[in-house]
Write a structure and sequence with these properties.
Blueprint lengths: L1 H31 L6 H26 L7 E5 L2 E5 L3 E9 L2 E10 L5 E2 L5 E9 L16 E11 L2 E12 L16 E11 L5 E12 L21 E11 L5 E12 L15 E10 L5 E7 L5 E6 L2 E6 L2
Antiparallel strand pairs: 1-2, 3-4, 4-6, 5-6, 6-7, 7-8, 8-9, 9-10, 10-11, 11-12, 12-13, 13-14, 14-15, 15-16
Length: 320
Amino acid sequence: MKTSRITFVMVATMVAASLTFTSCRKKDTQKDEPDSEQGTAQDNNLAENADNDLTAMGSQLSENSTLTTYKLIEPISGFMFAAACATISSSYTTIATTSVAVSHTVDFGTTGCTGADGRVRKGKVIFNFPNVSASTKWYRNPGFKMVVTSSGYYVDGNLVAINGKTVTNTTSSSLPPGPNPGTNLTWSIVSDIQITKANNEVISWNCNRTKELYNTSDVNCYNGQSNAINWLKAVVLINGSSSGVNAKGENYTATASNLIRDFNCTPNPIAQPHRHPFISGTISYVPGSRPVRTINFGTGTCDLNATITINGQTYAITLP
């Protein structure tokens, strides 16, 4: 019995030492591993896309009461044709004998509707224009305001709940009426959205951004306050901050710098004729206490390529 006890103690001691050594080795290995966490960038990009999409949708509705770039594209005998991808219900008021919309409700249905950007949407998005007047009727008008809400709205299987979203035209009211005003049209965007992903992970995201019609001087895009903006020719510049909670429950902050979306750029014109990604600019993220990581959208090439740099290590990614 005495020998057995001594043997048991020795074995227990050796096991404990082995576990301690293994634990130390594991910690050292983890310490040496590069920080390649990209989940926050992916979550933020998902929210960025959803929010920018809502802004673009509202801008088109305000200018034209239609959704030109949200058509359903279907192949027929090798050709593509456009069909309605949603129903639009509108409320109007009359200003100086002109009928002007005060709200639009876009209903993508309940089964899923594939738009010309390749994304599948369902549910409703409601756009209200609370301060419509003779001088603030359209998205292009200084002082124009748009408030966005949603009801059961999904994009690619992800539930997008809008807790608050307001877009305000901040262009100077002294803007000349002609096609070349000498300054670009600008908007302030304040958003608070929550995305429940198809796998039930939840992302919270809010932003305070500025949006600029970067090519106001191009008459093919903007031809003065008397004409609707041609969004098919627009180039948009976005700057500002955002913050939120990623799918892992970790707080993060982000800063967008000179993001360019060129609506003339279509990397996949057949399958996604109205998919217009960011083609330049950066977004820098700080997830929790980890080092900053920066996603770079390139220098203007029309593609879906980008990079993420973390601690000096750069990783190539493809935009969704």
